[in-house]
Structure formats: structure tokens, C-alpha cells
Predict the 3D structure of the following.
Amino acid sequence: MRENPGVSRRTALKLASAGGAYSLTRAFGVMRPRSAFAQGSDELVAGWNLARIDRLDPAIIAGTEIMQIASNIYSGLIYADHDLVPRGDLAESWEVSKDAREWTFQLRKGVKFHDGEDFTADDVIYTYNRIKNPKTGSIHHGRLVGVENLEKLGTHEVRFTLKSSTPAFLMLLTRFPGRALVIASPKSLEKMGSEQFSVTPVGTGPFRVAEHQVGTKLVLERFDDYFLEGIPKLKRITVIPVPEPDTSVAALRTGEIQFHNRPPAQFLDLLRRDANIDVMEGPDPGFQSLEFNQNRV
């Protein structure tokens, strides 16, 4: 068995490409560094490039902008860091068999869901079965077709057996962009039902949903029992849908919002010239493809 195999950024991008055509373009965000937030406030108002924020159930999340928000609510077995390199999230460590068909994960202990329930291997099994079941309507079930079996080895240990060696498997388990096993609370799912859960989801992430007025605002509050010490720094984030380019830029420049996840490209030069605004840039794991209808070609 190989334990915690090192994965470089170059290898990670190759693995991502093996599962699809992930772009290497750049993603932008903008922030007012001289706002009250930067001066010590523990609250942030963020504008989001969406007409409405809904469908926060990870089984049905498709859009990048929604998943950016959901990544603050949920954890996965793995996450991709700023350089798109896989790191342990709810999985503390893992081992891979020589033929790369068996992946054994040691899970974090002492992790709590926002509803107070303990995270265990049973939650991984529950999520896997839910995603694989076509009746749940999950758009991610196709990502797990290469898994032959998932078994619980202990309270905090699981093993995946693949049908064949799959280079992209580790990337498929990432909270983002893979999304195949983002862990939601089974107890809250069963209690609320999937429709309400999409509005007020429950995960193990650094923030919990405190208020959600669909189409108007989503309020996230710091989860004090988050498993990483000292994170998050912020106490509250209010996310407001701001899809109109002119409105989002005006709100940034006046300080009505302090952050925007994807500012309109036509205004980037203007924002860069504003001394009160920082333009931040990073890798974009967006999926791009060119598809043909072969019945008509």
C-alpha cells in the first residue's frame, strides 16, 4: 500500500483532465481592502454573480458560483487548494493499493455537523448511496460509476474498490471541483426533505446557514465547532445576489458590498484603477467542452 501519495499541481491538473476538460483560465474576485472589514470588522457583505441563490443541496448543485458558496457550508473527503492540489478535508489520510483499485481513507474524528450530530463513516456510506441512487435526482451519480464497492472498515475508516484503475478518482472526491462526495447531514436531510434542505442545508463546514431569503440574501454564521482550530476568522457573511454588471460595480465602489466573486470583465480595468479595491486572481477549475450531435454530422 502507498500512504498519502504526493500529488503535485502538474499531476493534479493531469488527473483533472483525465476526468474531463478542466480549463486553466483565471478566476477573478474583487474586495475593498480599506473597508470596515479590513479594519477589524468580523462581518462581510458579499455580492454574488447570480440572479438568485437556491438549490444548495450538494447532490444537485451544478453551477460554479453556487458551489463556491456551498464550499463554506460543507466539507468533502478531499478539497482542492488554491493551486488545485488535492488535500485532506474530512479524510485525514489515505492509502492506495499497488494496482490503484483500492483506496482506504482514515476519517477525521471529533467532527460535528451543524445540527450537533457526529460525523462518522456511516455518513460517507449514506452520501455515496444517495448520490448513486438515480431516484434522488443527483446530477453527480455518473462520477461514481467506476466504483465497484464502498465498505465501512471502522467508525472512521472506509475503503473504495474501483472497477479499474482510474487516474481521476481522487479529484472526483474533492469538495470542489469534483463534488462526487460532498457530505451533508443525513439526519437533517431526512427531517427536512430535499426541497427544504436545499434552502437551509446542514454540513460540517466553517459556516452554518443562519438565514436564507431565497432571491434576496443568504446569511452564513461562523460554526464554532468547526474541526480546524482558528477558522473561520469572520463571524458572519451576508451573500447578496447581484447579477447586473453596473449594479455590482457601483455597489463595490460605494462600499455597499465589500467583495464580489466574479466581477464583470468589462469593468476590470476600472476596478484595478480604484485605490480602494483589490482585484484577486486564481486558477479557475471550470469545465469546458465541445460536443457534436453525431446523428446529424
Observations:
- The chain has eight helices and 16 strands.
